[in-house]
Write a sequence for this structure.
């Protein structure tokens, strides 16, 4: 299928991009989630705002002991992290090299697929989401960012411009079951210290250590064995 007609904008600054966002707009970064939705006409924006010409937004760097991930940082950049092994392990399960080379970390978080690996890993690591609009900025804790199926607290005129990840705890684990490597996860968990985030168990990644909340007995049994 082909997408419905839309206006295309390619701003060259963040301020210009923010000025274009409204109820009828969608922001495009890596496009690995949005483009299929456009092609199936599950998303029909009036305007597509392509962020890829905005400079200085593709960083993945350590700053004051924390990790800062810019809105255009590609998922493949996480594979180079030594000090945040949970993110490195999680991204290895995301799709295939072609999708990781193009997909963005912030885009995955903003898309909020409940079966996605990176939102759960960021939730387990107590990440902070830096959000900006034309009228101001705000910082949202990971546990408050995901609110439902493919839904976050982002308003139509806001962009997730950076993710801040605290120092990595010494204890961590990442487990997932998929039919084949790179396929959609059927169930999984990301563990960082005393925080356990489950994914593919509900309408959003959720922070809990009580596996009794998992309704599906097969998924619960897998998690109990994998996390034992």
């Amino acid at each position: 299928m082909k997408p419905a007609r839309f206006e295309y904008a390619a701003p060259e600054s963040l301020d210009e991009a923010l000025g274009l966002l409204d109820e009828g707009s969608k922001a495009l970064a890596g496009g690995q989630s949005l483009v299929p939705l456009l092609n199936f006409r599950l998303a029909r924006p009036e305007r597509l705002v392509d962020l890829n010409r905005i400079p200085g937004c593709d960083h993945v760097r350590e700053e004051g002991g924390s990790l800062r991930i810019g809105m255009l940082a590609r998922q493949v950049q996480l594979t180079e992290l030594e000090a945040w092994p949970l993110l490195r392990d999680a991204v290895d399960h995301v799709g295939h090299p072609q999708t990781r080379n193009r997909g963005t970390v912030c885009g995955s978080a903003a898309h909020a697929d409940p079966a996605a690996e990176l939102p759960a890993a960021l939730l387990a690591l107590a990440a902070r989401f830096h959000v900006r609009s034309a009228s101001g900025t705000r910082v949202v804790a990971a546990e408050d960012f995901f609110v439902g199926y493919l839904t976050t607290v982002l308003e139509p005129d806001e962009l997730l411009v950076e993710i801040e990840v605290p120092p990595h705890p010494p204890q961590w684990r990442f487990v997932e079951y998929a039919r084949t490597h790179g396929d959609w996860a059927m169930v999984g968990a990301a563990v960082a210290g005393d925080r356990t985030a489950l994914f593919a168990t509900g309408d959003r990644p959720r922070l809990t250590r009580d596996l009794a909340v998992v309704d599906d007995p097969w998924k619960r049994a897998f998690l109990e064995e994998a996390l034992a």
Remarks:
- The radius of gyration is 17 Å.
